[in-house]
Amino acid sequence: MPAEPLSIRDAWSKIPSPGSTETAFERFTGTRMERILAIVVAIGSTALAAQALIAAVHGLSHADAAHIVMLVVVFAPLAAMLVACLVGRGVRTFSGLFAVAYVLALAAWPTVVDQADKSAGDQPWIFFLVNVGVVAAMLAFPLRLQFVWAVGVPFVYGYVRLVQGGFSREFWVTTAFDVSFTLILGVVIISLGWMFRSVAAGVDEARGQAVASYSTAAATAAAEEERVAMSALMHDSVLAALIAAERADNERAKELAVAMAREALTRLANTEAAVAQEGSDEPVGAAQIVVELRRALSELGADAIVEERGGVGLIPGRAARALVLAARQAIGNAVTHANGRGLHIIVEGHGDEGIGVTISDTGPGFDVGAIGADRLGIRASIFARMAGVAGTADIRSDEHGTTVTLVWERS
Q1: Phi, psi for 401 (deg, rounded to 5)
Q2: What DSSP string describes 78-139?
Q3: Within-domain flag for 220
Q4: Which residues cross the membrane (predicted)?
């Protein structure tokens, strides 16, 4: 198969491992929600601040020094909060600064500014910013303090309003209406902010759990794949070399055992490098597979016909390597359990579509369904190896013989 692109490997490397804490990743939706809330607050607060500023400038001709100081105390942190909301930096700090400064300025309004309302319908500019103080608390403070601001600021406003009107009956009616409206609006604003943040937190938590589960599954699959690969390696190379050494009773057999042991040691040394273990990914044709299978027959001391059919056949090097190793295991099983009787090998090329290898013998056969889970010669060295390169393996056996069919085709 083609080598994995660098960009995909880089993307996989950015998935956090199980148990790791990636704050920016885990709070992605929460961070986006905070940004959206800040922008919405900036837009709404700008409109209210413009109204308040127009009213304040309109009354500057009658303002004293204390009134000008009050303007600076309120509008300076308000402007800083609006800029922070728009640029997305220091939102909590400047919002908290304005929320506190506004409450203090509102509470001190009757004593600092000498301005009595002529009627209940006339309101000083500072009253336009009551709900701005509430949304500032929503951006800056924990939930409990947010509700304190949502409930407390309207009552502070009501008290100041009554003081301005001398606690007259006319002011009681209009102030009660204003306080109730401001109180309800403030609680709704805080509740909406809490709801949106809760939804975002739930999405982030679900995403974190999904990533953790996927990472755990990927790690488990990788460990299982490595275990199967190591088991196949031990069975194909190490155990085969040991058996060959044990049965070596002449010079030729000893040389064969030494060669098999050298190959086993090389493959064990290369287990850390997948490319070195599986070979190059350069395309391999059916003719090269025929050569490899004849070499395997020679090393196993077996005599059989290797027949090449069909077209040239080209498959990736790793798939060809797996195909040869699985076929070699099937040949070894035929030699061991059927004494190589009627051994016949067919390599059939299908152009660029793939290659199929069929190994058949006329031995006594066996029950495929009775193969134990610990029989690595078939499960790991044939089935698992072919599955590892997206190939297929099929074994049919009865009293007339056994046929192993190995196929690798392009999807």
Answers
A1: 145, -175
A2: HHHHHHHHHHTSSHHHHHHHHHHHHHHHHHHHHHHS----SSTT---GGGGGHHHHHHHHHH
A3: no
A4: 36-59, 65-87, 94-112, 124-141, 148-167, 179-196
Q: Are residues 93 and 190 in the same domain?
A: yes
In a domain, 187, yes or no: yes
Query: Nearest to residue 36, comparing CAs of 131, 130, 141, 139?
Result: 139
Please enumerate in sequence order all residues whose Cβ is within 8 A of that of 403, keeping only pairs 6 or more positions apart, or say none: 358, 359, 360, 395, 396, 397
Q: Do 310 and 373 form a contact (C-beta atoms < 8 A)?
A: no
Res. 136: pLDDT tops 90: yes
pLDDT tens, residue by residue, 18-39: 444 444 445 678 888 889 999 9
The residue from 209, 239, 271 where one domain ends is 209
Query: Each residue of 340-385: pLDDT tens digit?
Result: 888 999 999 887 788 999 999 998 888 877 776 656 667 767 887 7
Q: Which domain holds residue 31?
A: 20-209
Tell which wins on pLDDT, 114 or 204: 204
What does the alpha-carbon distance between residue 53 and residue 325 come to, in Å, rounded to a whole number? 83
pTM exceeds cut of 0.85: no
What's 285's domain CATH number?
3.30.565.10
Please give the pLDDT value at position 387: 82
- β-bridge mates for residue 47, sequence order: none
Together in a domain, 156 and 303: no
Q: How many domains does the chain have?
A: 2
